[in-house]
Amino acid sequence: MKATVERATLLKSLGHVQSVVERRNTIPILSNVLIEATGDAIRLMATDLDLQVVESFAAQVSTPGATTVSAHTLFDIARKLPEGSQVELSVDNNRMSVVAGRARFSLATLPRDDFPVIAESDLPTHFWLPAETLKQIIDKTKFAISTEETRYYLNGIFMHIADGNLRAVATDGHRLARVTTPLPDGAAGMPDVIVPRKCVAEVRKLLDEADTDIEISLSASKIRLTVGNATLTSKLIDGTFPDYSRVIPTANDKLLKLDPKSFAEGVDRVAAIASEKTRAVKIALDRDRVTLSVTSPENGTAAEEVPADYTSPPIEVGFNARYLLDILNEIEGDTVEVHLADAAAPTLIREDDKSPALYVLMPMRV
Questions:
Q1: DSSP label at 69?
Q2: What's the main place this protein lives (predicted)?
Q3: Out of 42-51, 116-125, 173-182, 231-240, least confident range
């Protein structure tokens, strides 16, 4: 194999695929990226056996061929090569030579035939989503994905059809995020799927450079997304997502309206002295104002008043400051609605009743 490619092109594509590769691997080949040079293009592939990313880019190929080489090492080399340089990749006697200007590297390779590939099976459901819509779905839900491995079925975003719309939901038991978007053409009849956290994170990185519609194909066990020149294939979480609709309150009769930016800034300030363990902030609601306060045995106390629109009886409720800020940071409008029942009941947060995103936050004792 022998090919020449521009350093910026190589670096960009390696950046997309190498982040899938785990830093520590018991199977050596999984530390590698597969490089295939044919015609006038190079194809890169990386996998962790659950998630696979493939990306192609134009290159001058003088000798077709394929090999595998350490993904992180090659990425690190490409990152440190001079800007604008041409990189020559060639393979001889189980070594890969990387040459750019006066810099030369010789890297160990492993056989291409040993590289595992996720089977390209037929995925019956096929539709397109605008990049901005997929970004919104991910950004407004991913912070609520659970990291608790014992409840593995919560370690992703649950996507399903409800009321003729596409819904995406994530929850970790403390907070819940739900986004509703019109059902795309071709998605009718799609199975309920749980897209794993790592797949969500890798897709989101690719979306930063995408401005076209994203092609999505899925079955009950796999999902494939094509973003620009990159195709990402992932196994789905094999589990049953709980009936989340039961925790979305419908009878919270106390309505608080306020500016999400000043509310978030106030919460952030008083939380500066909150203990790392609980991060608890007390919110006292009275007519047309909210008093935020924190009492920490080791650090002291803090309080701040925030103007608000509130006409119901006074109430005090406590929240985890970080969880509350995660939600407020996703509110884009000038007003946020906080629907409360009492100090122990789930709280509903949204921009208004027409907003595609809805959040539920469990209170804390303070």
A1: E
A2: cytoplasm
A3: 116-125
φ, ψ of residue 87 in degrees (nearest 5): -110, 125
Going by C-alpha positions, the residue among 224, 319, 315, 213 that lies closest to residue 266 is: 319
Q: Print burial letters for 299-315: b (CB count within 10 Å at least 16), e (below 16).
A: eeebeeebebebeeeeb
Contact 3, 15 (CB under 8 A): no
Judge whether 22 and 50 are in contact, CB under 8 Å. Answer: no
C-alpha 35/C-alpha 293 separation (Å) is 57
SS3 224: strand
Q: Do 155 and 217 touch, CB atoms closer than 8 A? A: no
- What are the pLDDT digits (tens) for 52-74? 999 999 999 999 999 999 999 99
The answer for residues whose C-beta is within 8 angstroms of residue 259's C-beta and 6 or more apart is 306, 307, 334, 335, 336
| pTM of the full structure | 0.94
In one-letter notation, the amino acid at residue 157 is I
- Mutual angle of helices 131-139 and 197-207, in 10-degree steps: 140
With 90 as the cut, is the pLDDT of residue 276 above it?
Answer: no
Give the Cα-Cα-Cα angle 45, 49, 52 (nearest 5 degrees).
35
The DSSP line for 103-128 is EEEEEEEE-GGG----------EEEE
* % of the chain residues with pLDDT over 90: 94
- On the 0-12 / 13-18 / 19+ scale of CB atoms within 10 A, 26 is exposed
Q: What is the mean pLDDT of the chain?
A: 96
The Cα 325–Cα 21 span in angstroms is 31
What span, in angstroms and rounded, lies between the C-alpha atoms of 171 and 154? Answer: 7
Q: Are 156 and 237 in contact (CB under 8 A)?
A: yes
Size (the chain), residues:
366
Q: Is 269 helix (H, G, I), strand (E, B) or coil?
A: helix
Residues 208-217 pLDDT 10s: 988 889 999 9
